[in-house]
Design goal:
By secondary structure, the chain is of the alpha/beta class. It has a single domain, classed as TIM Barrel (Alpha-Beta Barrel). Helices cover 39% and strands 14% of the residues. The protein has 12 helices and 10 strands. The strands form 2 sheets. An 8-stranded parallel barrel has the order 1-2-3-4-5-6-7-10, surrounded by 4 helices. A two-stranded antiparallel ribbon has the order 8-9. Strand 3, helix 4 and strand 4 form a beta-alpha-beta unit.
Length: 314
């Protein structure tokens, strides 16, 4: 890392670290695990030095956008974005109204990014069908419609490659980037689990990265998910995600690439977690431990010498 870049990272990275309720086990998937309330999660985010957060699933924060923003502000946090799973490939379904509703809420809460995933139309992330050319054409056209609607509202729309959705692999992500103009939410964990190389993608498409979800994963469990020998939810419960720097994603290389290319957006610490029980009780892990380790790793990057980027999984 050059001295000027190191100074930039050291001086500004801390101001651009955001959280996500899923790092505390809060998830939209039925039966995911023990669910913590906002009055536990939000104070812990600020305790760990995070400046902002994504909204989390419906029902975690109040429904009214102004009330969402007020709850966050009461804990010293600002809104950064919202994850919106939407069915984009089905000719019987128009995803624009639901995404526009989320966009209106984000505008009211002074957030900047809507994070869209290409949902299958079923609950969970353990199975999906493949798309034919007509399905891909609808998906890409809907992404451009969503991007245009977000831009009109003053927001940025991004597509989030995600395990168990219609855009999960590195190849599918490249097809989106070649086929439409929406920004990319670079999720370093989901791309590796889907068989992609997040370092290579960041190097090839840095100008399309508009939002970043930082995750680190165990490649051995990622390969099991990819092969279908375990489900995504089971792998998460078994420790698929590990603190940044402890897994098989070259987080340092990705941050260096993006910062060198002029990325000045948020880095959202988003480690999918399943809580088996309430923290502090029998069998209850404290999610703060992993988030604290992630923050420490990121803030250490400026002091680390730059090395050659690793191929994903090395």
């Amino acid at each position: 890392m050059s001295p000027s870049l190191a100074e930039h990272v050291a001086g500004h990275l801390a101001e651009r670290l955001a959280g996500a309720p899923i790092s505390w086990g809060v998830c939209e998937v039925p039966g995911w695990g023990h669910q913590l309330p906002p009055d536990t999660v939000l104070p812990q985010m600020r305790e760990l030095g995070l400046r902002a957060t994504e909204f989390g699933p419906d029902g975690f924060l109040p429904d009214a956008p102004a009330d969402k923003a007020a709850v966050l502000a009461a804990h010293g946090l600002r809104a950064v974005g919202q994850f919106v799973p939407a069915v984009l490939h089905d000719p019987r379904h128009d995803p624009l109204p639901e995404v526009e509703a989320a966009v209106a809420g984000l505008v009211a809460a002074d957030a900047g990014t809507v994070v869209v995933a290409a949902a299958t139309g079923t609950d969970g992330y353990d199975a999906r069908a493949s798309l034919d050319d007509a399905g891909w054409a609808r998906l890409l056209a809907n992404l451009d419609r969503i991007s245009a609607a977000a831009t009109r509202a003053g927001l940025t729309a991004t597509l989030h490659p995600h395990v168990g959705t219609m855009v999960a692999t590195g190849e599918e992500t490249e097809r989106v980037l070649r086929g439409c103009g929406i920004g990319l939410c670079l999720d370093t964990g989901h791309l590796l689990i889907g068989g992609g190389d997040p370092v290579a993608l960041a190097a090839r498409w840095p100008h399309r990265v508009a939002h970043v979800h930082l995750k680190d994963v165990r490649l051995d469990l990622a390969r099991q998910v990819r092969a279908g020998t375990t489900t995504y939810a089971a792998a998460v419960a078994d420790g698929l995600y590990v603190p940044l720097g402890a897994g098989d994603v070259d987080i340092a290389a990705i941050v260096r690439l993006l910062e060198s290319a002029g990325y000045r957006g948020w880095y959202v610490l988003e480690q999918d977690t399943v809580l088996r029980a309430a923290p502090g009780g029998p069998g209850g892990a404290d999610p703060r431990d992993d988030v604290r380790a992630c923050v420490a790793h990121l803030l250490s990057l400026a002091a680390a010498p730059a090395g050659a980027p690793r191929t994903a999984g090395e």
